Amino acid sequence: MDERLVAFVRALRGRDVRISLAESIDALRALELGGVTDKQVVQAALRATLVKDVQDMAVYDELFPQYFGVDAPPPMQQPGGGLDDDAAQQFEQMLQELLDMLDELSEEDIKRLIEAMMGQGMTRRDLREMLERHDAMPDMSQGMPLSWAMREASEGIGMRQANELLQQLMEKLRQMGYDPAQIKAMEREVRDNRATLAQQMAEILQQEQGAGRDDRERERDRDELLDRPFDQFSFEDVPNFRREVAKLAARLRSQAALRMKRAQHGTPDIRRTVRANLRYQGVPMELRYRRRDLRPKLTVICDVSGSMRAAAAFMLLLVYALQDQIKRTRPFVYYRTIADVTRDFQELRPEAAVRVIPDRIQGGPYQTSLGSCLTTFLNDHAGAVDRNTTVIFMGDGDDHRGIPRIEDFQALRRRAHKVLWFNPEPQWRWYREDNYMHLIAPHCDGVHVVSTLRELSAAVVDLY
Amino acid sequence: MFGTITSVREHLARHHYIANEHIATTLFLASKLQKPILAEGPAGTGKTELAKATAAALDYELIRLQCYEGIDEARALYEWEYAKQLLYTQLLRERVGGMVQTATTLAGAADAIAREENVFFSERFLLARPLLKAITSPKPVVLLIDEIDRADAEFEAFLLEILSDFQVSIPELGTIKAVHRPLVFLTSNDTRELSEALKRRCLFLYVGYPDAEAELAVVNLRVPGVPPKLAQQVVDLVQQLRTVDLRKIPSMSETIDWARALVELNVRHLDRSTIDTTLNVLLKYESDVQKAKRMLQSGSEGDDEPRMRRERDRDRDRDRDRRRS
């Protein structure tokens, strides 16, 4: 049991679930206490001790049966059920002859594969042993794609030969003049069984793949994630992204805490000093200093037109992951019109909120109109900007409806503490048609090119 | 303490809490391993209730620490009661005067007062807050640290020390060690990420929305006198509403409130007009109420969903085409 638990923990770690040594020890003790006879108890006990994040539950539930499930053969089709009695008998006889022949040739594994395709399912352990016997387990640690590995493995155990032999039998049956429709049905059932076998094999290989990943690879994955352009991200990457961001947040937190601590030693705060020393009958024994809150106050305005949606989503996710390091965030999204999405972020988890925010934009023609959005922003939402606010635009600076009014930018910059522009596109693209980045840039306090997570993190860290 | 996992379930059921396999196992392990439970999940799914039921089942006192933004040691652990100390020194002025009378030098007088210092820094003037109360309690207790995600990260770090050793150092009194390790529950609504270190020290329990069967059992248990048909209808409707995209999904506690309201109104079974008039007990936003009514009318999920998706796809295509041209 201990070995299996260790393998299970390794597999979980391979899938990026963080498990410390202390937690593995807890899991072992939990098994001792709860007993290992009841599978549900084992599952609950290991889940309580090993998984500390709701996001990781899915991985846990997926891997658990592979390590602790009953390793029973999956239900298989029983080919040949639809044949006439005569044909069935004939086929049965031919199949038996073939199997006997394989026996004589001591090709037991091919025989076993044929039997499996004929409906006698194999357990995962059997299949794994077969792979190991033929030395056909591909080296999954080198990042081999699953489809290649599958091909290599099935070739290794002789799946192709087994399949061909079975096909020949059925061909013979056809030549003998039996009903082709019935034979076709049988072929289909055999094919289904082969797919089930392939599925089992894929599970084994995936397990191997997860367990084989070491820290260096994870580091490589991380680098890849940091340097991947935003438009190649999908929502499946969000959990990995969150993990990265958690690290960034931890770094910023200690940085900010230090600065806050230093900032507190400065001007004494008379009001708080008097109040604190009331207990000493007004003798100022404890000095209180003025607290300075150095956390920025952000208003984030993101372009959510098709091309910019991914970048905007990640920008907002990052900002919300750093929520406790930011005094207040007001998120807006623009495309055809501009919309205040503060409420979505108050009520939903950020991951859920970024999915719905593009729907908040209603009305207007289907074209990005930065200029009119900005005018609307100044008219309707100017309260979101004051002299302590840093305004961050996340967009490419496109406007398909006209030239944005530079006066609006100037007005915004006068109101705000700072206006920054985060652009996922490099500078050489600024001068193309309908792009006004070159006009806007001089009126911003800073323009950052942020096409990857690494650049985005660096730009956000710069705010502090 | 609980002997087996089954006994956990029985004990909790006796106190009107229906625990599933996960809850029962986690609670059993927590009591045996003496580790805190971190219960996470949406609001109103019975996390706090679990701590209360456990306290009742074990016949322990429940000590609750409600977290909020800005909570600090003084609110959570202990504080010296300065006002009381001051009052005592005022009242005892003559005694203190008499004590120093015999001293001939200033140093002698100071020494005389210092000898009596213990009187003023004793437990008499110590205002114990929930954490200290839980540690010093002569009987075992259940300590509930509610909504830990609302407290600041610094407070979390402070809690970490207490939760691992169950001892506190008070400079004037020395170290106070727990007589009995309390059974600790931390709850979180997952509004922010908790630190890895805290999670590592706890057993993790996710309490989500219950399935129909469990919810029905809870309604029957918690709402005495509810007609079986009504209970079934209430649970079916709530389960259906949870699949709709609402601003606030109704939780277990809202289901109970609604069922109670219906029983109070003497409703025997649900019909359209009853639903229309009482839906605001279940749903907390007007937009949600309207959406639910629309759903009930059409008998299908929020009908604007496919339209929005179509629009979104169209936007994307147009944008891409324009880019290409």
Describe the overall structure.
The complex is a heterodimer of chains A (about 475) and B (about 325). By secondary structure, chain A is an alpha/beta fold. Chain A has helices spanning about 1-15, 20-35, 40-50, 55-70, 85-105, 110-115, 125-135, 145-155, 160-175, 180-210, 215-225, 240-265, 270-275, 310-320, 340-345, 350-355, 370-380, 405-415, 435-440, 455-460, and strands at about 295-305, 330-335, 340, 390-395, 420-425, 445-450. Chain A has 20 helices and six strands. A six-stranded mixed beta sheet of chain A has the order 3-2-1-4-5-6. In chain A, β2 and β3 (about 340) form a beta hairpin. The mean pLDDT of chain A is about 80. In chain B, the strands form three sheets. In chain B, strands 2-5-8-1-9 form a five-stranded parallel beta sheet, with helices on both faces. In chain B, strands 3-4 form a two-stranded antiparallel sheet. Chain B has a two-stranded antiparallel sheet with strand order 6-7. The N and C termini of chain B lie far apart (about 75 Å). In chain B, α12 (about 210-220) crosses α13 and α14 crosses α15. In chain B, β6 and β7 form a beta hairpin. Chain B has helices at about 5-15, 20-35, 45-60, 75, 80-90, 95-100, 105-115, 115-120, 130-135, 155-165, 195-200, 210-220, 230-240, 250-265, 270-280, 285-300, 305-325; strands at about 35-40, 60-65, 80, 125-130, 140-145, 165-170, 175, 185-190, 205. Chain B is elongated. With about 325 residues, chain B is α/β, with parallel strands linked by helices. The interface of A and B includes residues 52, 358 and 366 of A.
